[in-house]
Each structure stands twice: as structure tokens, then as C-alpha cells.
Amino acid sequence: MDDKIVNLRMLGFATPALPLNSLVTAVFVFLPALYAEHIGLGAATVGTIFLAAKIVDVIVTPLWGLFMDNYPTRWGRRRPWLALSAPALMITVYMLFNPPATITAGYLIFWLIALYVAWDAWTISHTAWAMEMSPDYDQRSRITGLLQMMVMIGGVLVSLIPAILERLTQPDFETKASIIGSFIIIILPLSVLICLLSAHEKPVNSRKTSIGFKQGLSLVIKNNALIRLLLTNGLMTFCTYFLQGLFVFFVSYTLNLADWVGFILVFLLLGGLFCVPIWIKLSIVFSKHRAIQIAMLVGGLAPLMLLILPSNNIVLAALAFLVIGANSSANEFLPRTMLADVCDHDRIQSGSERMGLYYSLLILSSKLAAGIGIFIGFSFLGVFGFDPTLGLDNPPEAIERLRYLIVLFPAGAYIIVMLLMWRYPITRERQQAMREQIEKQQV
Questions:
Q1: Rounded to whole angstroms, how far apart are CA atoms 176 and 148?
Q2: What is the chain's alpha carbon radius of gyration, rounded to the nearest angstrom?
Q3: 298: which of 27, 99, 193, 408 is 20 to 30 A away, CA to CA?
Q4: Would you say 280 and 141 are in contact if contact means Cβ atoms under 8 Å apart?
Q5: Is 1 domain-assigned?
């Protein structure tokens, strides 16, 4: 088949990643501020609700992975659930981004949990499908890198909405949230349709279809590379959502640029988008775990600019967040492409393709870390003397303390990640040897 056709089909296959990050950006940047400040639930309540919803998600996520792995349909193991998750997501997005004038905490936690359940089906089905497409170490980086580029484009598009609205009109925050939700509702079904028409799912090819629960659990627990990768992914995700959860408050009040939140968010996401090819190249030239270490070094140093960034300066703020966003794409796609290699090790041990289960564990670590990030970030707002409902009426010293809160926690997490990636066991050479062993098992 012509390379141009193959590339076009791969682009079509990657399309569902676009609304995925539109949703990620919308949920973790705009929803906490919407419900904490503008709906009036309060920062501590919203932070607790996000964490509680993640705890439910911890239970649901691996169940989705196990179900998809062990109960294939005649349409495939991944395709049906990607299609069915779209309408469920559309309903939950509408309810969350268009709340009634008067709500209770129960409204937010119910619809947030519903969103996470549908979200799990979407992400596990699509990303597990992507990671099963190729057995090659570097090709996996290219495939997941393509997905990550779509992810970043989706984030840029959804952040352009408030940026454009801020320049054309002066909408209130509730209106911004509603328009963002409408955009996501439109692109969700379109992206699924394009994906399903662009690619076919690879048939399952393993010497046995399932293993016992105790044996399967034992293999997971004893998988050293997996445990290190889950911890790494969790810490990297914590950093991403800790920053995004506090982003609106920091830009609006510490930098005094409330009318430029959407505009600056675009630069944060563009930094990640521009650097996707760089992280792919580094993972090929060196290795995936070395690329993560480099990304962590960048991620730890770049935010130090926020400690000295002056307020009321839109140009410097945009440039600073462009640099700070550089490692955000590495945070997302490198653990995913490394997970495919981890699954090769599991396949040798178990004889089964359990990509759905393993990817569900990866996103479980992401979602739990995201909830913890929101919880810690919002909880420490009170410790630092900042009340979101007061806005600029907060004491000046409390507003300034946001600089240290938004910088210090991620820096510590990045240092731990660099240590976790030291002497990581699955190198390019080790993965190639495992693929040869898998091929022999199939003969």
C-alpha cells in the first residue's frame, strides 16, 4: 500500500486522541475553577470530590481492561467500546459543563464518576488498540507520538475557545465552560467515525487466551519494569494536573492576567505540541527511559521562571509557559510507548495479550495521580492562605505564595522520576530479544 495512504489512515486512526485532550484540558483546567469559584462549592470541597471520583475510577479502570482483553466480540476487542463510549461521554460532558444554577456536591460527584467510567472505555479501547499495532520498539514511539500530537492539538483547540472569546467579547466563566463543552460534544462522535473507517483491528494471536486470576496477578506484581513505570507515570501525571489545576488562579491573580487565561493556556499546550518530534527523536537516538530523564530535567528547571515572572506582562507570561509546556507531551506519550514493551515481557510469561489490562493500570495511575494533584493543590491553597472565592481580594502575600506552590511540588516529583528511570531494565536490545522469543512461542 502507498505510504501516503498508510500515513493518512494512521492520521485518521489517531483522531480520537484529539477530543481526549480537549476533555482533559477542559476537565482539569476549567471544571475545578467553575465549581469551586463560580458555582461556589469551595476549593476544599471540589478537591475532595475530584479525589473521591478518582477512587471510584481506581476500581472501574482495571475492570474495563480485563473485560476488553477476555471478552472479544466479532467486531474486535477495542472497536465496539470506542464506539459505545462516545454517546456516554457526550451526555456527561453536557451535564458537567452546563450545571443548573443551584447544585449540591452530589451533582458534581455523580456526573464526574459517570464521566470517568465512559472516559475509561474510550481511552483503554483506543490506546490499547494503538499499542497493539506494531511489535517494533521505535515504531511504537512513532505511533504513540502521533497520538500525542493529536492530543496536544486537541488541547490547543479547546484552549483557543476561551482565548478567542476573551478577545471578541467578555463572557462570564460559565459561558466559556458551556461553549467548551459544546465543542467537545461535537468532535467526539466525528473522531470515532473517522477512526473506525480508517483502521482495522489486529486479530488476537496468542497461544492461550487467558490465565488464572492468581497467576495473572502474581505476574503483574512481580513485573519490576511495570511497577517502576506506573510510579513514574503517576508522578509525571501529578505534575501535569497539579500545574493545570492551579493554572487559572495563578494566571488570574498572581500574574493579574485574568482576561488572558485562554491565550496563555494556548502557549502552555503549544510548548508540548512543538516538542513531540523532539521527544520521539530522543527516544530513538538514545532510549525511551533516557528521553524521560531528559524531559524531567527540563520539567524541573523550566518552572523556576515562575518565581521571578512579573505580573501584568502578557508577553513574558506567554513565553514562560511555552517553555514550561515543553515536557508535557513527554509526560503523556513516553510512558505509553514504554508500556507496550512491558507487555512483551508479560506476554512471554503469561502467553496472553493483556494490553487492555496493562494500559488500564497505566491510566489508573494517571487518573489517581490527577485526583491527588487536584486534591493536594486545592488543599494547599488554604494552607497558603488563598481563598479562590475572594480572587484579587486575597491578601497580597497569599497571592504571591502561589508561585512557590505551583513550582516546588512538581520539582520534587521530577527528581524522583529521574531516579526511577535509572538503569531501567527494558532497553531497545532487551525488547528486540523479547520479540524474537515471542515469535518462537507462536511457531
A1: 25
A2: 21
A3: 27
A4: yes
A5: no
pLDDT average, residue stretch 335-361: 84
In a domain, 204, yes or no: no
Does the residue 121 lie in any domain?
Answer: yes
Give the whole-angstrom CA distance, residue 261 versus residue 181: 17
Query: For 52-105, where are the E strands, in sequence order?
Result: none
Distance between CA atoms of residues 190 and 12, nearest Å? 11
Q: What is the CATH number of the domain that holds 331?
A: 1.20.1250.20
Exposed/middle/buried for 150, CB within 10 Å: 0-12, 13-18, 19+?
Answer: buried
pLDDT bin (cut points 50, 70, 90) of residue 322 is very high
For 373, the 3-state DSSP assignment is helix
Residue 20 has pLDDT above 60, yes or no: yes
Q: Is residue 3 part of a domain?
A: no
Alpha-carbon distances of 85 from 21, 81, 236, 343, rounded to whole Å? 16, 6, 26, 25
Residue type, 61: T
CA distance 36 to 42: 4
Model pLDDT for residues 121-169, shown as the tens digit of each residue:
988 888 888 888 888 888 888 888 888 888 888 878 887 887 788 777 7
Confidence band of 228 (pLDDT split at 50, 70, 90)? very high
**Cβ-based neighbour number of residue 221 at 10 Å:** 10
| 19 sits in which H/E element | helix 17-25
Number of other residues whose CB lies within 10 A of the CB of residue 422: 9
Interior CA angle at 368 toward 370 and 25, to 5°? 30
The residue among 346, 334, 339 whose CA lies nearest residue 434 is: 346
How far is the C-alpha of 290 from the C-alpha of 157, rounded, in Å? 31
- Residue 246 sits at the vertex; the CA angle it makes with 241 and 248, to the nearest 5 degrees, is 115
CB atoms near residue 425 (< 10 Å): 12
264 SS3 class: helix
Q: Which residues of 260-287 are buried (b: 16+ CB within 10 A; e: fewer)?
A: bbbbbbbbbbbbbbebbebbbebbbeeb
Torsion of the alpha carbons at 396, 298, 11 and 116, rounded to the nearest 10? -50
Number of domains in the chain: 1
**DSSP type of residue 255:** S
- Please, what's the b/e burial string for 349-384 (b: 16 or more CB within 10 A of its CB; e: otherwise)? ebbbbbbbbbbbbbbbbbbbbbbbbbbbbbebbeeb
Q: Is the dihedral of CA 114, 118, 123, 124 positive or negative?
A: positive
Helix (H) / strand (E) containing 141? helix 137-168
Helix (H) / strand (E) containing 9: helix 3-14
Q: Which domain holds residue 151?
A: 8-199+209-442
